[in-house]
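User: Protein folding is very new to me. Would you mind checking the protein record under this note? It all follows right here:
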Amino acid sequence: MQSSNTSKQKASKGTVQIKVSNGRLQLVFSWQGQRFYLSLGLPDTTINRKAAEAKARQIELDFVSGNFDSTLEKYKPQSVLKTQQPDITPKVTPKLKDLWEAYTQYKASSLKPTTQLYHESFTRLFARLGDIPLLDALKVKAALEKVTTLHQTKRALMQLNAACRWGVKHKLIEQNPYEGMANEMPRYRYQLEPNPNSFTEDEREQIIQAFKAHKGNWNGRGVTGIGYEHYAPFVEFLFLTGCRPSEAIGLQWKNISEDSGFVFFEGSITTSGNGKPIRVKGSKNNKNRRFPCSQKLRSLLQSIRPENPDPEALVFPSPKGKAINYNNFCNNAWNRIVDPIKPDTTPYSCRDTFITIQILKLIPETVIAEWCDTSVEMIQKHYADFLKLLSLRPVD
């Protein structure tokens, strides 16, 4: 039972305090500069305290989710409270969609737009589950597996684990039933096959030349369709810098020094679910970096640099002058040109190729890590050790 001294303390903004007035329990809180008093009409007993605490948690959840009812009608005692049955302890557990909404709104201000869109995809997914209790994790998992893929189910459980961990921390729920569930599911392909999927230097040159030579599709009488030669500088740039494709897509002429000696990676462009390009500041690891250009890279940049480039213009626009749509590029240009040379690759293999070649040329791993916005540990684990294994042979 709460002491009289505690009941006299002023409730902080966004928290609900239980007080006793004339022997009856009362909820007191402030919201948006207004002071609220909600009488529960219950005597101060242990059982009724638990009912008051449940009501207080419901109000606090509505604060963070934006669903607070300032008229208090939503929170006034219902029949269960009015009867004051001592053997009934009302317990309010937020619904799955309500906790998820509260969690994503709480996190929104600190997230990149791409991550917010990622969260929105799960908001739509959870809306398809219906009114399944949040804490019935097994039913939630089974329902997810009926409406989406196995890997998307795993990702959804990871998100629910994070949301419930946040909910426990803020005392919106008492337990997190999703802890460890995602780890029990099949691993992703990159976890099963962590080795880099790089090209040899010869394959790299074949790919660059294949893009340069592609004028369209030969139908026996002539060339028709789209020529992918437009993307040759973009692909060569990926090979020569090891940057992420989204960083090259978002590169502007203001990010390249006038003498083409340095490239400044300060952001990227990704594509949302509806195909809309989104510019994001900073790298994946929220860093900006200066990349020194090799002579071959300088020659490439100088060959495509306009006489008086618009600083805001894209260095590698699509054929229509817009930002390259990564998925369209992969499914069309990349697959058509690269698969005959080496199948089952993506433009990220250019990054693998750059890092692998630099290791073979004895560039320090700390330098490569700075150039590519990664860690020495990642390079040693996924590249250096792999190359060592390839070069070693058993002793007879």
Observations:
- The first strand starts at residue 17 and ends at 21.
- The CA atoms of residues 365 and 379 lie 7 Å apart.
